[in-house]
Amino acid sequence: MSSIADWATPNPVTENRSGLIGKAVDRYEGPLKVTGTAPYAYEVEAPSPPVQGAIVTSAIARGRVAAIDTAEAEASPGVLLVWTHKTIPAQGARGARINPRSQRPSSPVMDSDEVRYFGETVAFVVADTLENARAAAALIKVTYDELWAVVDFPASLGLAENPPGEEDVRIGDFETAFAAAPVTLDETYTSPIQNHVQMEPCATTAWWDGDKVTVHTSIQMVKGGQHALAETLMIPSDDVHLLTRYIGGGFGGKGQSYDDLSLAALAARELKRPVKVAYTRQQMMLGTIHRPATIQRVRLGATPDGRLTAFALDGYTHCARDALFTEHFANFARSLYAAPNRLTGHKLVKMDLPGAGPMRAPGEASGMLSLEVAMDELAEKLGLDPIQLRLINEPERDPETGKPFSIRQLARCMNEGAQHFGWDRRNPKPGQVRDGRWWVGMGMAAAIRADYLLPAKAGARITADGTITLLQGMTDIGTGTYTILAQITAETLGVPLSQVRVEIGDSNLPPAPGSGGQFGASTAGSAALDAGMKLRVALAHLAVGDPNSPLYGASPDLVTFDDGKIRFGNQSEDLSTLVARAAPEGVYAEGSISPPADRRDVSLHTYGAHFAEVGVDMDTGEVRMRRMYGVFAAGRILNAKTAKSQITGGMIWGVGTALTETNSVDPRYGSLINQDVGGYLVPVHADIVDLDAVFLDEVDDKANPMGIKGVGELGISGAGAAIANAIYNACGVRLRDYPMTPDKVLAGLIAAGL
Amino acid sequence: MRPFTYERATDAASAVKAVSDNPNARFLAGGTNLLDLMKLEIEHPTHLVDVGRLPLAAIEETADGGLRIGAMATNSLVAADPRVRARYPVLAQAIIHGGSPQLRNKATVGGNLMQRTRCAYFYDTTKPCNKRQPGAGCSALEGLNRNAAILGASEHCIATNPSDMSVALTALGAGVEAMTATGAVRALTVADLHLAPGDTPHIETALSAGELITAVTLPPAPTGGQVYRKARDRASYAGGLAMVAVAGGQIALGGVAYKPWRALKAEAALAAGQTPAAAAEAELADARDSGRNAFKIALTTRLTVAAIAQAQGGKS
Amino acid sequence: MKTTMTVNGQASTLDLDPRTTLLDALREHLNLKGSKKGCDHGQCGACTVLVNGVRINSCLSLAVMHDGDAVTTIEGLGVVGALHPLQEAFLKQDAFQCGYCTPGQICSAAGMLKELADNWPSQETADLTAAIVATDAEIRERMSGNICRCSAYPQILAAIRDVVGAVA
Lengths: 754, 316, 168
Known about the structure:
CATH architecture of the largest domain in chain C: Orthogonal Bundle
Oligomer: heterotrimer
Radius of gyration of chain A: 27 Å
Largest sheet of chain C: 5 strands, mixed
Number of domains of chain C: 2
Helix content of chain C: 25-40%
Largest interface: A-C, 64 and 62 residues
Radius of gyration of chain C: 16 Å
CATH topology of the domain at 363-452 and 600-751 in chain A: Aldehyde Oxidoreductase, domain 4
Helix content of chain A: 10-25%
CATH class of the domain at 363-452 and 600-751 in chain A: Alpha Beta
Number of helices of chain A: 17
Structural class of chain A: alpha+beta
Strand order of the largest sheet of chain A: 3-5-1-12-9-10-11
Strand order of the largest sheet of chain C: 2-1-5-3-4
Strand content of chain A: 15-25%
Distance between the termini of chain A: 66 Å
Order of helices and strands of chain C: EEHEEEHHHHH
CATH superfamily of the largest domain in chain C: [2Fe-2S]-binding domain
Number of helices of chain C: 6
CATH class of the largest domain in chain C: Mainly Alpha
Shape of chain A: globular
Number of strands of chain C: 5
Structural class of chain C: alpha+beta
Strand content of chain C: 5-15%
CATH topology of the largest domain in chain C: DNA polymerase, domain 1
Largest sheet of chain A: 7 strands, mixed
């Protein structure tokens, strides 16, 4: 019925008459955040002071709890409750859905004596204070019957299978073309397990009122959390009121709920008082999802002039046994470069490790680490500039589906980035530039990240004082959702930003899918635009039907909105005047977005190009980023300030990926070894020097009604590869194993006689 | 944390007595290491004696032309002291390469000397560790031991001392003053403070129970350049993979052993007129790796060569 | 045990379990929830507060250690409508995203400004005996005890630069 062609019709966002769209306005919730008064989940005011929980986690990777001695803990001061798998109240069966429309099934905690990974919850304590709860938790003694566990990924590739319902994707005849190619590259690249390290650990505050529970929790997906909890508690989802107003970072890791949510709700019911539960940092490292490791093989065949004839990216990744997830590191490659003969695919190993799951740009973030280094290597073999090689292989249409690109400005990103960065000063021969004890080199990589649009709803209400409130079960994980929803709403209704309020993060509000996959702004924003349009219609009808309005009798289709007024020709009145007089109880309208079927007929992506300059310490092999620049094309930009922050944040994740971030498994214990932020190193301020990014002017009218696209995940896509390529250019050491720590660089230097 | 009682000491002698009399008592100074370990149930004191406000924070000239630094001086104040910066730049450099400003503002000189290893297996109480539980075994020996010791380790423990400050103090030949249970003050050296792990890695220092470090003494600054170099995975706020302090002809290595490692063989080689490379190789000739830390031998060698060369070049 | 602190200018006497960290005393006993618990082990900086004007990790300090001390938290620097210049600058430069590390960043920056004024060195200080120049490298190094996983570092630098002023 609807079609992407409809989006060519102008609307208030695309017309942008008051100029709010794209404007670098400050964050809507910023004053609360800079004063420390935005209440995160552990900090909300409960009806009475909450008591506090502490979680005990397993010390083995796989097996059964043989015995738990809780006597000392139960006798410990202040303890109100101690639960194990034997004593926790009944919960919905794992994976069950009482309500078939639940977006998530039951997620019970301690539902059996089975241990499925190191760091799984095995006991839980609530006490009057956190000090007492944690002290009691430490007194619980658990013994295990341990079972053999699959925990060593590189040693377990023999167990790999195709992800459910997936086969390798083949176009043409890759093997024959690769064998015949005059110039070839065949290399394997590895990336480690990574952790989201959201600054705010998972946390929930819960209380009950009769049969209904209110939970404030830190989660990216409102409905998912509400439904999972309802199924776990075996109650109707309407009896779960889930709120998540401020979220201290998500990055995909909080796309699902964790045991803090179920335990807080269960304990609050049992104790008949508010309970709050937070994960420790160690529990965040051990017991939440992570980005799984990958082993990727890239095979490229090319003609001497640089035309790709054979193209393959395939390999291995892993996930938990009972929570299938595939890090689709090869999917992006199906849309990036032209080549007639192609092979892409994934093999999955089910392991007894904490769940694998989405982490900022799942797929692209891992896969571009391999392909974009392979392209650098191939360029060198061909004697081509890396940008030139990419330009030679720019496809006219999506290389596998043949679909037209909605818009593709990758070449412009590379060319403009090169010019701004001074790429022409790069010496293609490695190890030629010195600055004191540092070898200095430059690298680049392309960026691509798929663009999505999901169904969503939104509500818009105007009250008698003229305030317009946008209402949506959406989240803001730091992405700027509050702010862009305010901008869209203000622009749509023609009112100043100061007249708009935004209420999100509440399961009672019109549902939106939440934050993830860089679909948030497009999805939530499109619904907000529609809600605003529906409110305009309602207000127009209100005015033209009101004999006391100067617009009385006008055609509602010709009414316009600007400057806080509703207008027809020379006649106008303030929205607040109209509503206070004609609808003092306020006017509410609901809108929605539903992706039309023909949106699938175009190839929709965001694009970019990364440029990096690094120094490599000649003595130690330490790598330090010196300069980084990115040019990105991501449709119309809603807020120049918050969009840029998203992009530069993603680029910095690429720096961490390239240089420091890794969660190592000790296969003897099946446990991650670096369990805190002193052991798992994310970039600190000193690591990030002279980093900047720009967006190209772009409108993608095939993406959604606003012509925008997501920016949250594009920045990390390819960024780490640019750093890796710069390391090679600096010192001639080609590394294919992330992260590129001093031990690996030094081994390369020594092998090269340096 | 297990329950404990807390008292704030009013004078050093009574603090020493309080801890000497109670085997489950500990001194608490800045708390940046002890509280970290108590939260993880690695340390379980039942009584804490807060020595942080004892009047032991002064930095004074000594009769021999050195400095005496009170044990309760914060790391930041030592690094900021004009006399330290002018005469012992290697010490200021070492301190400001460690931790974060917030940690240095709280951590004391005495506490820094007493800080325990950052070995991941020591920190994970589900893993065997001879330091935590004598006789349990060492998980690091055949584990992910990238940061383990290459000098002075034993088959019972390959943990390293993480301190930056102590490396510079060792290169400077610093002394330690400690008050014993009798109230007497005895002198030892920073180089002799830490004990080789041997088969008792849980016994980490030469101090007896209840003995309190009251000061660190610096001899007159050596002639010659002073240099501090630290190799690490990120640019700041990270433990060292290897550290080197050079103070004139005196050299100490960090991150490579259970203690800041005075490189006497390298010093002797330099004194005999050998090259920095020969000196470094002489010191590392006895180095042994445990697998993933093998790179540290080359890393430490190269870092030592570079630091010596830089010091000899007169730069600091 | 009884502990008296002056917090944001107001004297408060609390009767505390000695195990209570300064961070938990602020958050759970004084209802000052601006200081955040990110790691609880001194590895992230989200809990940074000023004690007697000096920035520390409040998670690695017992509240009872601070009897008689003056503590300043983010709530003591400025409030909505009357922001501290650093808060204004963070807002203007978009120097935060999720906001969870932000109070710690701002308190840390406030402490850093005093350390700069007092001529304390950092590892970026080339000449330990000269007056310190607040270069970008100095500011980055001095703010490295505060992790921002959203990675607003370029924006944080810009915000602090707004307050420090450009280096001649």
